[in-house]
Amino acid sequence: MLKVQCPTCDTQVEWKEANKFKPFCSHRCKLIDLGEWASESNVIAGPSANELDPRMDEFDIEASFPPADDFFR
Ligand SMILES: [Zn+2]
């Protein structure tokens, strides 16, 4: 199985069609690399990307932010 390193957290990632985030290990790492995660953190004053647990999955990240409708109400 071909593997690559996630550019964000250096986790070994299997290079396969099922991994829609490749070469990243997760949606989170893809967002970090694109800078989208940083801009969201600035708005909500959350922890910096470096302080987040790389094992945190996408569901946990989304659950930790309020829905946009509630946040800006
Ligand atoms: Zn990663």
UniProtKB/TrEMBL annotation:
InterPro entries, alphabetized: DNA_gyrase_inhibitor_YacG, Znf_NHR/GATA
Pfam families membership: YacG
Protein name: DNA gyrase inhibitor YacG
Source organism of this protein record: Catenovulum sediminis
Residues annotated to bind Zn(2+): 6, 9, 25, 29
Family: Belongs to the DNA gyrase inhibitor YacG family.
The keyword Zinc appears for this protein: yes
Function: Inhibits all the catalytic activities of DNA gyrase by preventing its interaction with DNA. Acts by binding directly to the C-terminal domain of GyrB, which probably disrupts DNA binding by the gyrase.
Cofactor info, note text: Binds 1 zinc ion.
Subunit (UniProt): Interacts with GyrB.
Keywords: Metal-binding, Zinc
Gene3D superfamilies (alphabetical): Erythroid Transcription Factor GATA-1, subunit A
Cofactor: Zn(2+)
